[in-house]
Structure prediction request, 370 residues.
Amino acid sequence: MRSSSSPNWEDNVNVVEAVQAIVHTYPEATIVSSLGTATSAARHVTGDGPHFYFGAAMGSALAGALGLAEAAPHRQVVAVLGDGDFLMGANSLWSLSACRPTNLLVVVLADGAYSITGGQTISCPLRLAEVGAALEGLSGATADTAEALRAELTSLPQPGLIEARISESVWPGPSPFVDPAEVVRSVRASLATR
Amino acid sequence: MTTSTPTILQWQAEVVDQLLAADVSVAAFVPDSRLNGVLTALSGRGVPLRSLTREEECVAYAAGARIAGKRAVVMLQSSGIGNALNALGTLAVPYRLGIPMIVSMRGTLGETNPSQIPIGRATSPMLGSLGIQSFSLRSADDAASMTEAVLNMAYQAGETSAVLLEPELGGQRERR
Prediction:
């Protein structure tokens, strides 16, 4: 169980900065992003890069990332999930614990709200550092700043869970609604060529 | 407590033969008695099994494998179709990922548990309402051809589709 934090309030982090940290650390990774802020941020940061954007299927992105990671073991996979989406499919953590792919990081953008539906509050803290420590084969960490997130991305054993605490609310820009056919085409092309 | 290795029935062996002929790479499933023989035979012939926690998780796991070009199959009990509808309707179907499903039917012929009846009766209509074709397998004589056909629909045409294993097949479900 690890926790990286900074007392400096100027270190506030938003979802775009968090995804920038992921892409900077793993530029060749395939991102699997959940509906909403996570998909919008991933599209924004990567210029609509070839990633597995979920246009719906709330609660299923973690399982999708697990299937992709096991099917493409030589590719780094990063699941970028909203905290609301994560909670809808948190049972998949136990599957992750059983399968233990060593090419999968799970980053939960924890802003404490269901942003896509109007910002309703998520009432319970995620405590992913403790959850990761409790489940066999997993590791967990909490990051309060972009710098701390970058550090955990490079040092946390995989499969690992990172609770990226989002302290600044922004909407990244691109629509979270994607063209499924284009998503499938681009991901398959990316996996075939790199 | 002891567990016994299930006897592999003819229809189960023929389903497995077709899955192997289609180069299935992984089977994601939620347990069911009628599926035991299929799963045991698959594992015995080297196909990785993933026992997941919920049916929609199986669909999403298979979606991740399919987008990576692998050939996943999902196996579940019909009662779990209710759990899987969101992932089927908002992921497997619109992304045209072609996920084959093998569904062990409850709530149909001879069912003694009243709680199983509504979803058993609704399984095929629910799938159909999402545009997912399903085909009832009642005889071992049809096991190979129907399984092959559904796998072709999924892997070649990109159509998520299902084989429904009906009670007439037998397979360890009759007295439960």
